[in-house]
Write a structure and sequence with these properties.
With 593 residues, this protein is α/β, with parallel strands linked by helices. It is built from 20 helices and 29 strands. The strands form 6 sheets. Strands 14, 15, 16, 17, 18, 19, 20, 22, 23 and 24 form a 10-stranded mixed β-sheet that branches. It has an 8-stranded mixed β-sheet with strand order 9-8-7-5-6-10-11-21, with helices on both faces. A 4-stranded mixed β-sheet has the order 4-3-13-12, sandwiched between helices. Strand 25 and strand 26 form a beta hairpin. Helix 2 packs across helix 4 and helix 14 packs across helix 15. The N and C termini lie far apart (65 Å). About 1% of the residues have low confidence.
């Protein structure tokens, strides 16, 4: 795709009077680019969905809810909170699985200016108490499992607890009794765009989770950013094709004359209504923003799952005629690897991919071949950017399988900086930074961490990589996830991409192992097919065909058990590494006895 087509598309799609017209928006002392037609707040977003109120919005097992019923249920939540004395700025906690009540609670909380604290439902008891204390919330909505975790702390924390899908528990009220009789008319509250809307905690793959506070303005502009980026990509492709048609007009006319003499093909049936699986937890930015909140304007149907299950996902795709699948790349990869894949009719699926973690080229090829031909894609973003940053799919992805895409126009910019904060040019590796109106407000109660991460409108991501001449972003590693072996830097993701090329490898995680002589050596944990006979030495030789010898893992642990995951379904590298190091220490201690 030529850059002039791309730039023309940006100008056309964002021009004055167009749906994605842009304007200058000041946030504090930073000048951003925002959308003229972005909803003022999340309540306005929800209200806009009443234009297709009779469409199905959320399907959970045998339960089916329309956009209108979602609005009414959310209004009951909003009214009850107001009756309890909740005012804008109050933090209200949500901690349970992707039950429908999670969505109604979130909608109700944010519609009246309160802050939805989306707590990690995979947290330990200690982490739950930490999150409650850190956020300062006094009202908490939980299911049975999360209630059991905080049962003994309710009085000390001064909590008002509402339980979902469970019988009445001590010192709590049930969801049914709480909302019963509440008005279904949404209360009118003037929520300014710059008011706080969400407090999402980082996934827990770091030692101490940080609360990421974001505004209505950031979220609603991010939602339009996804739409505008898609419209710009489509228009740029159309412009390129029009240019190619003009260049080959005579040849195409001859072909058209030949085709006119052939029998006309019957028209294709109407395409299915846009639909997707809610494949990750709603407390994660991918589930909340990228999957759930983006549905309101388009009227997309979402189908929830109790937990991630490959076979259940395949069944849902077939029975609900799912048109798009988006999660983390390992999910789409697992779908493509299912031994029962051919038992299901997946013809409705138009796209399949994911973000939040790198997608190895072999993963993309398998997804393209087995799930959605030409519809594979990936992207990159953070909780701190509402999941918005880059995206790539289709032909550009086939041409650049190791890229996570370009900055999503027109409101996002990405750059790489050096060790001294200087801007780097194409091909130069440094820390990647994201600029845009969708960036978070602050880390809750952590001003120093905020200053370290958010600088002059740029989020310093901690991801290491570079941009090419056309602005495509390549992530080579995390800032602190580089193995330094004898002074040589080794990118873990580069090694993982090679291991994924082996046909027996389903999952892998590469990490550093302390070494007395070299400082670190490369280790890997690999999950293979159950019938695989792959040995460590065979996989090392395979890797050496694609990597320098110093990059080849010196130790590889091979098994058939699915690798540990974080709550957002990313492979939990820190836990894997800690378990390996613990085992190595025990072995060393045993040999010294």
């Amino acid at each position: 795709m030529q850059s002039n087509d791309y730039q023309t598309a940006i100008r056309e799609i964002t021009a004055k009077g167009q749906p994605y017209e842009t304007e200058t928006v000041w946030v504090g002392n930073v000048e951003y680019l925002g959308f003229v037609n972005a909803p003022r707040n999340l309540c306005e977003l929800y209200r806009s969905a009443l234009n297709h109120g009779d469409r199905e919005f959320y399907v959970y097992e045998k339960e089916r809810y329309t956009y209108e019923s979602a609005w009414n249920l959310a209004a009951q939540v909003a009214n009850r909170l107001r009756e309890q004395g909740c005012v804008p700025g109050d933090r209200i906690g949500i901690s349970f699985r992707n039950y429908p009540e999670w969505i109604w609670a979130f909608m109700g909380i944010t519609s009246i200016g309160c802050v939805a604290v989306a707590m990690n439902a995979w947290w330990s008891d200690e982490e739950m108490v930490y999150g409650i204390r850190d956020s300062g919330l006094k009202t908490l909505i939980v299911d049975q499992q999360r209630y059991d975790q905080i049962r003994d702390h309710i009085d000390a924390l001064g909590l008002y607890v509402i339980t979902v899908r469970t019988s009445l528990q001590p010192r709590s009220t049930t969801w049914e009794s709480w909302v019963q009789g509440a008005s279904t008319s949404m209360p009118e509250v003037d929520v300014a765009p710059d008011q706080s809307a969400t407090l999402l905690y980082t996934s827990g793959s770091t030692a101490h989770p940080k609360g990421v506070l974001s505004t209505h303005l950031a979220i609603t502009n991010a939602l339009l950013g996804w739409e505008a980026g898609g419209a710009i990509g489509w228009r740029a492709m159309q412009l390129r094709r029009l240019r190619e048609l003009a260049e080959h007009a005579e040849e195409l006319q001859l072909a058209a004359n030949e085709n006119s003499q052939r029998t006309t093909e019957p028209p294709q049936p109407n395409p299915p209504i846009p639909s997707s699986i809610l494949s990750v937890p709603l407390f994660h930015v991918t589930g909340l923003t990228v999957q759930m909140l983006t549905s309101f304007r388009s009227g997309r149907k979402l189908v929830g799952m109790y937990k991630w299950d490959v076979e259940e996902a395949l069944r849902i795709i077939q029975e609900e005629q799912i048109t798009s699948f988006n999660g983390v790349p390992t999910m789409a990869w697992e779908l493509a690897q299912s031994p029962n894949l051919k038992k299901y009719d997946l013809t409705s699926l138009q796209s399949a991919g994911g973000g939040g973690a790198p997608m190895a080229p072999e993963q993309a090829r398998q997804i393209d071949r087995k799930l959605a031909k030409g519809g594979q894609g990936t992207g990159w973003g953070m909780t701190e950017t509402q999941g918005l940053a880059t995206s790539i799919g289709g032909e550009p992805f086939r041409e650049r399988p190791r890229s996570c895409g370009r900055a999503i126009p027109p409101i996002v910019r990405v750059k790489a900086i050096g060790d001294n904060g200087e801007d780097l040019g194409p091909g130069e590796t440094g820390e990647l930074c994201i600029w845009g109106i969708m960036n978070f407000q602050e880390y809750w109660n952590q001003s120093e961490a905020t200053a370290e991460t958010l600088s002059d409108g740029w989020v310093l991501t901690g991801d290491i990589g570079h941009l090419d001449e056309d602005g495509y972003v390549y992530i080579t590693d995390r800032k602190k996830d580089i193995v330094i072996r004898g002074g040589e830097n080794i990118g873990c993701q580069e090694v993982e991409a090679v291991l994924y090329e082996h046909p027996d490898v389903l999952e892998c995680s590469v990490f550093g192992i302390p070494d007395e002589r070299l400082g670190e050596t490369v280790g890997a944990m690999v999950c293979t097919n159950s019938d695989s006979k792959l040995s460590e030495s065979e996989l090392q030789e395979f890797a050496h065909e694609h990597l320098a010898r110093f990059q080849v893992p010196e130790r590889i642990w091979i098994g058939t058990k699915r690798l540990p995951r974080t709550a957002s379904e990313k492979i939990y590298k820190r836990q894997i590494r800690e378990e390996v190091l613990r085992t190595l220490k025990q072995q060393a201690d045993g040999s010294n006895d």
